[in-house]
Amino acid sequence: MATCIDLFAGCGGLSLGLARAGFTPAFAVEEHKDAFETYRTNLLDHAARRRWPAWLPIGPINIWRLLDEHHGDLASLAGTIDLVGGGPPCQGFSTNGRRDRGDPRNRLIDAHLEVVSLVQPQFVLIENVRGFASMPHEDGGTFPDYVSQRLKDLAYDSWHEIVLASDFGVPQTRPRFILVAARKESLPGIDPFSRLRTSHRSFLAKRGLGPGPTTTRQAIGDLEVSLGGSVPDPEWGSQGFLAARYAEPREPNAFVRLMRAGARECPSDMRLARHRKAASGRMEEIIATCLPGRVLTAADRKRLGIAKRTTTLLDADAPSPTISTLPDDLVHYSEPRTMTVREHARLQSFPDWFRFSGPYTAGGLERRLACPRYTQVANAVPPLLAEAIGELLLGLLRDSEPEDSLPRLGHAAAQIC
């Protein structure tokens, strides 16, 4: 059985993908209560709770507190964990932000590496925004230079590359920085990213996807209000909110079948925004007159009276751009409205049975520290991408294991099929 720890787990996109690939999560670390509640609801069944270490309470926890209070417990895991993975919060690295090298969130990468030094896994996985690759580090060089040197000091070889989520069936371009590290000299002559590139076609084919990218319409076309209509929202109907009706598509495509698999009831998070008439009118004009798939031009914003610089009309026939934590960044390709949480989740490749917890959005002073549903979805590792990387790592794990230990991987390998 191949085991993993998910740091900065968020709502569980990485854990879900790794589990589907065949890894067994030992535990996850996430400090936001709403994100952890989503993780708990979807991924902590009875078996997962039994595996969770007795010394770690099942609940949200800050990674620095984990290191402070459970330093010895983490060290006791040395040699028993195959993978430590995670995506340290990316706001400090994003090219959409200030890219302040002194941002305290940037130091979370040191916490990630401290866990690696204690647990000593066979493999390390770090996922982040593309801007991580070029972010200068205060010690000189870039953050990837710094991380690679730290891992080298810990006796790991490492590789990193920018990977497009859309190459693995995710209906979103979403370029991501991916770093993979393995115990020193355990993968002689092997380039993990070369394997990832050559395996992506077979990964898609096994799921009926590809060879081209999954488009936005293919991902969410069955959720259009014009097709299924609307119903009172199960959670918020008493306050006047409607939800898109979960109608059965006549001819579901492969991606829709994949997302609907296992959904025994209408999914949550289908609530529609309540737009004022003027806002709906502007979105109708955006659909009719603006170029899809790109941020509105300055001329279009001036013509439409829109101050927001990130408004983008989705292109139905292409993958979505990288979704953000703000629901009003994207305009639906054919309906004058913003997107539902469920549609954002589809664009991230979360299955329909996956339910999100907490408020939909947050504003005011709470916004910086809150982790509402739209934020949980946007900050997650796309599960399909995580699954592809998980399959890669399981293959590398088999290659790196001595022959007398191969039976230990038999259970994990069986789970891939």
From TrEMBL:
Catalytic reaction list: a 2'-deoxycytidine in DNA + S-adenosyl-L-methionine = a 5-methyl-2'-deoxycytidine in DNA + S-adenosyl-L-homocysteine + H(+)
Family: Belongs to the class I-like SAM-binding methyltransferase superfamily. C5-methyltransferase family.
Iron-sulfur recorded as keyword: no
UniProt protein name: Cytosine-specific methyltransferase
GO terms for biological process, alphabetical: DNA restriction-modification system; methylation
Species of provenance: Aurantimonas marianensis
Key words, A-Z: Methyltransferase, Restriction system, S-adenosyl-L-methionine, Transferase
Active site residues according to the UniProt entry: C90
Pfam family, one: DNA_methylase
InterPro entries: C5-Methyltransferase (IPR050390), C5_DNA_meth_AS (IPR018117), C5_MeTfrase (IPR001525), SAM-dependent_MTases_sf (IPR029063)
EC number: 2.1.1.37
